[in-house]
Amino acid sequence: MRDPVPPAPTARGLLFEEDDAHAVAARLRRDGFDARVERARFAGEDDDEDQPWAVLTDAPTFVLELALEDHDGWLDVPEPPPTAPLRLPAAPKRHHRPPPSDVGGAP
Fold it and tell me: Could you give all domains of the chain from N- to C-terminal order, each with its CATH number?
């Protein structure tokens, strides 16, 4: 029989200290949530020691945020996916009636 697959993380918190990250993860696990700690890699950062620690969890966002407050961490909110570009008109729309045609003919 296979072990159940742990749920995918739905929230991510960032902390600068490894001990704080492990403390937050332990608190979330005590509360019944799945949580793991890993190094967060930011683009352009060369020094591994300057990289923050990430806590990945399936806990609701507000639960993670409360746990992070005690350790000076912050919630990493992903950017929303890009939306389709707006379809803009090629030219301005007329909101006035067209000019009346000459009814009686030209003089």
Answer: 11-75 (3.30.70)
